[in-house]
């Protein structure tokens, strides 16, 4: 890895003007409106047009199937568990797993990415980045959940249609048309290169679909579960079946195709059709050990993942009650069931492709918009930079060109999907992506690859935190906490902060500088938002970890509730709680970021910044608090 040996970049970027966003551009692309007559209709029933013609000497273009799930924890995939140590593979108990033989086959026959992240662990911004190859902030209101992607954003599908004459379709959840729900009707100017959209809906987590005439009707679980043929209408089965029908039609017309199967599972509500609803009831799902650590404050979690710690005895009671509760046990059993149902449908698709003789010529990409912590670090769902929230599964199967069993350890993110898939499909002269083309790494003959120069990024939609990832290191800068540096190479649980360790000074500087440079390319993002941001740690700060030893209270915050003067006579307590014990009052070295300016305590003279609480905490001496 190229390591920056000083902080020069930080100062060079101070006050730097914002770089304008680049739209995706294509060298002389044909207009979508001028596509051949075979692309004129959105209706799947209007398919009487003649087949595409192709030069006898031209190589046959590959087909593309992108399968995207919703809120998918990668530890529920056997192929990812195989890459982990036992403790990481089974966080909910030894042997507590859902088998995924068909998804595992995708990885066995192709390439699996160990370090693939979404640029935003939230539905809409993540999906915008996948479709466009751009950061969500460059795609319009889709940088927030339920936002609307700008009409002029060019997707990978539109590029395939314009450059390679692909017949394209989208099935399932879209979540890029604003708050409309379910939103079946697609405006003509918002197809984004997908010719067929009949089975695309905007948002909602419907569990059943039924065709009614020329329309589709959606149902919540309890409104349909007692009907006949639930397997035919369950959302995952329904969408895969419509996708297979689409492929059948393209084979009849000898058309190469590109399609997205966007599945709403395993996102909540956690309910699945029989027999998967009962398949995992025999398991007892333990809470992950990081949830126990978070509850006890041993060690405490960062404030951007705040889960309030309590005294050990109270924590043990709370943990035992939560683990035994029907909600948690059913939540996990149904989640596993949704994954098992998904895997069975992937198997159905693979068998179909093989029977039709097109499995060698078809690229399958499997991924998810974001993860689900499933109580790791004490939380459900997503929204943090932890591995099972921002980290997502990413598998590419292309037997004709990608070596089987390939493991890619290089760091990539969702903005890299569009340029990489276009590169893999030999689409040239496409520029303007924020992401990088990783197709060369996919296509080389190495069975294991790690480009340790890749640094990728992820951002909180509300600008609460920003993160940089590279080579097993993760730097998180936050408005509400000190910087956190995780070293997953020695701490895969992500519970320790290495930022202030001298031996991590260089990697901390490199990741922070890279994050700053990337962020300042866009207006109104993390570093431009109001409020002081800690670029460095404070000299005087109480630990949020539980106080170890025989003491009356367990946390620094509780010292003021008792006769803390006596407790603060202990050297151990004073070191652990220097602020609560009034044993530390000195300015911090380093910087705060205030209104895009890097500000040290020495810069506070003749300013009114000391009226800001965070500035007082960082510079107590300069603010006259000592």
Report on the architecture of this protein.
This protein has helices spanning 8-13, 78-81, 86-89, 101-109, 123-132, 156-164, 230-233, 235-252, 289-296, 312-324, 326-355, 387-390, 417-424, 439-443, 505-519, 564-567, 571-576, 613-618; strands at 25-26, 63-69, 111-117, 167-173, 200-201, 208-212, 215-219, 257-262, 362-368, 394-397, 406-413, 430-431, 448-449, 456-459, 465-470, 473-478, 484-487, 533-534, 592-594, 597-599. It is of the alpha/beta class and 626 residues long. The radius of gyration is 26 Å and the shape is globular. Strand 14 (456-459) and strand 15 (465-470) form a beta hairpin.
SSE blueprint and pairings:
Blueprint: H1 8-13, E1 25-26, E2 63-69, H2 78-81, H3 86-89, H4 101-109, E3 111-117, H5 123-132, H6 156-164, E4 167-173, E5 200-201, E6 208-212, E7 215-219, H7 230-233, H8 235-252, E8 257-262, H9 289-296, H10 312-324, H11 326-355, E9 362-368, H12 387-390, E10 394-397, E11 406-413, H13 417-424, E12 430-431, H14 439-443, E13 448-449, E14 456-459, E15 465-470, E16 473-478, E17 484-487, H15 505-519, E18 533-534, H16 564-567, H17 571-576, E19 592-594, E20 597-599, H18 613-618
Parallel strand pairs: 2-8, 2-9, 3-11, 4-5, 4-8, 11-13
Antiparallel strand pairs: 1-12, 3-10, 6-7, 9-10, 14-15, 15-16, 16-17, 18-19, 19-20
Helix pairs in contact: 8-11, 9-10
């Amino acid at each position: 890895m190229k390591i920056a040996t000083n902080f020069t970049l930080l100062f060079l970027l101070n006050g730097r003007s914002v770089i304008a966003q680049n739209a995706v551009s294509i060298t002389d692309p044909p207009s979508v409106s001028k596509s051949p007559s075979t692309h004129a209709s959105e209706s799947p029933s209007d398919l009487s047009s003649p087949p595409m013609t192709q030069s006898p000497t031209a190589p046959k273009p590959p087909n593309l199937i992108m399968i995207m799930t919703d809120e998918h924890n990668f530890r529920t995939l056997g192929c990812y568990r195989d890459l982990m140590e036992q403790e990481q593979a089974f966080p909910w108990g030894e042997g507590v797993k859902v088998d995924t033989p068909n998804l595992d086959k995708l990885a066995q026959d192709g390439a699996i990415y160990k370090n693939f992240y979404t640029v935003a662990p939230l539905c809409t911004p993540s999906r915008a980045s996948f479709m466009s190859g751009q950061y969500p902030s460059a795609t319009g209101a889709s940088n927030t959940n339920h936002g609307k992607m700008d009409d002029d954003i060019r997707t990978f599908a539109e590029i395939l249609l314009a450059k390679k004459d692909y017949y394209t379709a989208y099935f399932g959840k879209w979540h890029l048309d604003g708050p409309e729900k379910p939103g079946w009707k697609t405006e003509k100017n918002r197809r984004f290169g997908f010719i067929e959209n009949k089975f695309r809906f905007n948002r909602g987590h419907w569990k059943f679909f039924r065709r009614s005439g020329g329309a589709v009707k959606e149902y919540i679980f309890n409104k349909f579960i007692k009907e006949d043929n639930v397997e035919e209408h369950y959302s995952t089965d329904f969408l895969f079946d419509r996708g297979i029908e689409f492929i059948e039609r393209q084979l009849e017309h000898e058309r190469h195709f590109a399609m997205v199967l966007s599945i709403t599972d395993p996102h909540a509500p956690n309910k699945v059709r029989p027999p998967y609803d009962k398949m995992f009831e025999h398991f007892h799902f333990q809470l992950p050990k990081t949830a126990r650590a978070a509850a006890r404050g041993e060690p405490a979690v960062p404030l951007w993942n705040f889960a309030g710690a309590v005294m050990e005895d109270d924590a043990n009671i709370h943990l035992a009650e939560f683990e035994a509760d029907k909600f948690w046990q059913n939540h996990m059993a149904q989640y596993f069931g949704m994954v098992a149902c998904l895997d069975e449908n992937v198997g159905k698709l693979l068998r179909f492709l093989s029977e039709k003789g097109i499995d060698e010529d078809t690229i399958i990409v499997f991924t998810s918009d974001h993860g689900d912590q499933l109580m790791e670090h004490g939380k459900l769902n997503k929204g943090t930079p932890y591995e099972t929230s921002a980290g997502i599964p990413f598998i590419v199967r292309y037997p004709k060109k990608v070596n089987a069993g390939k493991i890619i350890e290089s760091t990539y993110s969702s903005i890299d999907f569009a340029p990489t898939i276009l590169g893999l499909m030999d689409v040239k002269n496409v520029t303007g992506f924020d992401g990088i083309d990783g197709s060369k790494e996919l296509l080389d003959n190495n069975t294991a690859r790690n480009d340790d120069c890749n640094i990728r990024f992820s951002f909180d939609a509300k600008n609460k935190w920003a993160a940089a990832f590279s080579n097993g290191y993760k730097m998180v800068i936050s408005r509400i906490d000190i910087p956190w540096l995780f070293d997953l190479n020695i701490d895969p649980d992500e519970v320790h902060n290495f930022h202030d360790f001298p031996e991590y000074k260089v990697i901390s500087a490199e990741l922070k500088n890279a994050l700053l440079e990337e962020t300042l390319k866009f207006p109104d993002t993390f570093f431009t938002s109001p409020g002081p941001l800690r670029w460095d740690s404070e000299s005087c700060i109480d630990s949020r970890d539980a106080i170890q030893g025989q003491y009356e209270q367990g946390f620094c915050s509780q010292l003021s509730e008792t006769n803390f003067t006596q407790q603060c006579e202990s050297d151990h307590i004073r070191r652990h709680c220097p602020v609560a014990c009034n044993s530390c009052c000195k300015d911090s070295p380093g910087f705060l970021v205030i209104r895009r300016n890097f500000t040290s305590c020495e810069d506070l003279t003749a300013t009114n910044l000391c009226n800001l609480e965070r500035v007082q905490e960082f510079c107590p001496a300069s603010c006259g608090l000592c």
